[in-house]
Amino acid sequence: MINFRQIFLTIACLVLVWVTPARAAPAAAASRAALLTSFCATDGDKAAALGQLVEVVVSPNAQDRAWAGRIVDAIRNGALVCGTGGHVTIQGSPALDAVSLQPSVAATADSPYVPSIVMMRKLAVASAEMDLFAPQQDTRSAAARQVDKFFALLDPAIVARAIKQERDPDTATVLTLALAKRGLNSNVQADRLAAIKAVAEVPSETARTALANFATQDSVRSDPVVLAAVHRAILRMDTWLSFGKVFSILFSGLSYAGVLLLTALGLSIVFGLMGVINLAHGEFIMIGAYSTYLVERLMQAHLPGLFDAYIFVAIPVAFVICAVCGMLLEFFVIRFLYRRPLETLLATWAISIALIKLIQVLFGSQNVEFITPGFLNGGMQVAPGFFVTFNRIFAIVLALLIFAATFALIRFTKLGLLMRATTQLRDTARCLGVPAERVDRIAFGLGAGLAGLAGVVLTQIASVNPSMGTGFVVDSFMVVVLGGAGSLAGTVVSSLALGEINQFIEPFYGAVAAKVVVLLMIVLIIQKRPQGLFALKTRV
Amino acid sequence: MKRRTFLSAVSSGLVAAAGSSLPKAVLAAGTSEPIKLGLLFSQSGTMANGESLLKDTALMTIDQINAKGGVLGRQLQGVVVDPASDWPMYAQLSKQLILRDKCAALFGCWTSVSRKSVLPVVEAQDSLLFYPLHFEGEEQSKNVVYLNSPPSSSVLPAIDYLMSDQGGSAKRFYMIGSDYVWPRTINKMLKGYLKTKNIPDSAWREHYVPFGQSNFQTIVRDIKDFAAQPGGQAIVVMTVVGDSIPAMFKEAINQGVRATDIPILGLDVVDSDLEGLDTKPLVGHLSCWCYFQNVDTPQNHQFKSDWKNYVSAHSLKHRPDMVIDPMVSTYLGINLWAQAAAKANSTGTDAVRKALAGQSMVDPAGYSVKMDASSQYLWRGDMIGSINANQGFDILWKSKDIVKPVPFSPFIGKA
Questions:
Q1: Which of B2, B166, B215, B327 is in the most buried spot, having the most CB atoms within 10 Å?
Q2: Which tens digits make up the pLDDT trace of B190-202?
Q3: pTM confidence score
Q4: Which residue in B162, B184, B217 has the most chain A C-beta atoms within 10 A of its own C-beta, making it the best mutation to test that interface?
Q5: Which of A130, A166, A119, A144 is nearest to A56 (CA)?
């Protein structure tokens, strides 16, 4: 009997505890509304309001935590809308009442709360601090990196709690480091030395900035032990960072070279091997880019599941479209103009303008919008001070693959043999039964198709509009002329040289100076070696 | 025979040109013919995108004024020409508009170089050009009406904001621009201004790229490098134009530069530049203009719905839901001209110019704008916009009232 009563009491107590949050709801609603009002009021103390929000985050009540998380997200996405009469809603379908998170009607004339930059920083930290307690390991480690990035703004109490709870050692290390950077401000010498040591372990730009700022403080200058430790740490970090700097210059030279190679490869066949001055080359690049655009749109409409793969689908599509355009151009225009370079030049220039206008009529002259496939977004930190972006790596890899394929085609296939034969000794080749006209057409188509491939890659790097090709055609001619007409190897070497030289000059003297120097260099080299760096040995 | 008719056509053209140098007030008086306004906006070439928007805005405004009965009891008529983004062509066509078509005033130009090319023509013919873009200042002609703000009343307040506590207390400045007069003048002025704020020379870095530059790898890396130096928060003041704007933003996104790390103040960025971009990673970067389309005033809702209706009624290719500052400026210019002509009871240049001083109206941004009596610059409100996730701008800050335009910056000499 007594036992039964005890059990009943226990259950009653549990129920009471469980019910309490629900009963407290009206009070919570009032404080929630007050919090939200301070975000909306023009003179409200937004930073203090955010501080309160973050406190809610670590509160034991799961409902409140979820609510605070939702509000911070809404503010960051610009979805918190301040209505007339203090009615705050979260935009979306359906719109939610910001206090109760129940569906609500949002008035149309409301204006969103626009956070200032300082608030955005605080919001980023607040949201990361919330994520530190997320169940998913990935979310937590991303949040830890974010907290580390804004170490000056972190809340030590919350981060310390997160470290205590963290099971993944790497994430805990990142958080400890963030705390250490903040801990530089401690007054105890031992703490400071430990913090310096911890920060120096992981070189990065932000860490160097933190240390350099630290070294200028009066309290540090007066303490020779700490000062020496800071200088040692900075020196060590500088070594690492300068390595990173050299690598990143090399990398951007390489990626610029990749773009040059891609755009020049087609031209090196058309101009180098066939001797046709094709000023419409840039427009084939542009058509390749617009083909990609069509593929992207179609995939988005019909195959949203495979959307990210559109860039790979676009490769054959753009190649075929451009190759067909190229062959048509050859059939209707170029073949009547072989060995008449001046007329070819004028005719292809006219075609280039006509194509630009045609695309302008069809698509309009504004830039077209591309949604970058997920795997090409962003980049990664390879080493301190050395950051590579995925779209550039993609361009480099694709350029190399396309070059290898082209090289193999010219070198090792029968078609390649016929092409080389036709270009080197046209009449003899014809006497031996080579169908020179057909070979010309295919070679021209190949050149145009390669330009189309360049267009596919450029959609991820440059802006796409009808006149995008005009800039590239000049660069392409530069590469081909410098490399030596007709030599694929020359094209590679000259694009690599131009890319690297350009990117080595640019950080010191600017992009304009880099262009000037590169062009002057080309003039000088062409004077000494009119046939280019790699001259093709022909008997003509 | 053909040649003779051609010659006679030319000579009659010359006679007509000579006749038109009569005072315009005489020609304007007492007829019920429409009053002609010259619209000098390119519809082809690189500027076609922006300028054709302004041309259609001008035609819409003219329709609106005509619907209310026109000016001085006469209808207005817009005379459209296409200078094809070719700067000397602006001068030639402006001459044609003034002499052959006898336009009462000209509205047009986007780039500073086209304005400079029209300037000698309107001065020689004593006509009026209403110029709707914000620009580098340092110019004042009695024949040009400047409808948008000079840098001292738009760029400097934005810099002040970014240097304030609320704006993130910027201490260091990276200036990146296209290589021509507007960015160079703006940056020169900015450096002079920073000097008065006791910012040391080591706290800024300046870089220019050629027109149409699309490779911003090195620049963005340099920006990150600059921002990592000690000395305080760094910001980017971006004055690149045209295609370079999306290219620069793309690279910033890829290299992970967010507004929370290094805010970018893009002085020439309008909504249409963001069209091709995923703006989620760009949220928080800034721009400053006298008008952003998200401003919540009844005048703006009216203007936006008028534009939407106009675009669909004339089946134009423009986006019906996008309005940018230069369009509003064009709209203001034509209305102010109409008010001044009505007040002067004449369309003559001198009379309109006199009546123009002190004219005011409520603009779509909600300010009561006012024409400066001495400088022919318009007093307007100033706003800072913050890029949002929907390829537009949210209004982060706006001036309490209209700001006095200062055509000649006192900071340029200090740099």
A1: B327
A2: 999 999 999 999 9
A3: 0.73
A4: B217
A5: A130
